[in-house]
Structures are given as structure tokens and as C-alpha cells.
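Long-time lurker. I teach an intro course on protein structure, and each term I like to show students one example going from raw sequence to a predicted 3D structure in C-alpha cell notation. This year I'd like something fresh instead of my usual example. Would anyone be willing to generate the C-alpha cells for the chain below so I can use it in lecture? Attribution to the forum is fine with me.
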Amino acid sequence: MTEPKTKTLAAIYYAQGHLAEALDIYARILSDDPSDAEAQKRHDAIRREMRASGTLAEVSTQVKTLRRLLRRVQRRRKR
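-- Reply from a regular --
Happy to contribute to a lecture. Here you go:
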């Protein structure tokens, strides 16, 4: 069962200090509905906050590493 990706859940993550998780949920909401102005506003605000604290660069590096590892696993499964 997948976890619902809602603005409420994103707000909870944000309030708990889980900025990357909140940002991810807002990005998913925006991919489904790019015209959601509230989600865009909150997404942009979290990105600014993460950029100011240096967290965004750290998360970006982690995402790149995880994507690289995922590609390796996928290649091994094809064998």
C-alpha cells in the first residue's frame, strides 16, 4: 500500500522538520496538477529554505547517489 501524497502530509512533514520529504510531496502534487498555486508556493518556500541552509545541495547529492545505485541494481537484475 502506498502512502497518500497530500498537502496535509507535506505540512506535517514540514512541521516535523522533514523538509526533503515535504518538498518531494509538493513536487509530486505539482506533477499531477501544475496549476496548484498553493502547492507551488509551499514548494518554492521549502526550496528557498533548504538552499539557504545548505540542505538542498546535500539532498541533491544524496539523490544522485541513490539513482546511481538504483541503476546498478537494475542492471544486475537484467542479467
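Some talking points for your students: The chain is about 80% helix and 0% strand. The CA atoms of residues 34 and 40 lie 8 Å apart.
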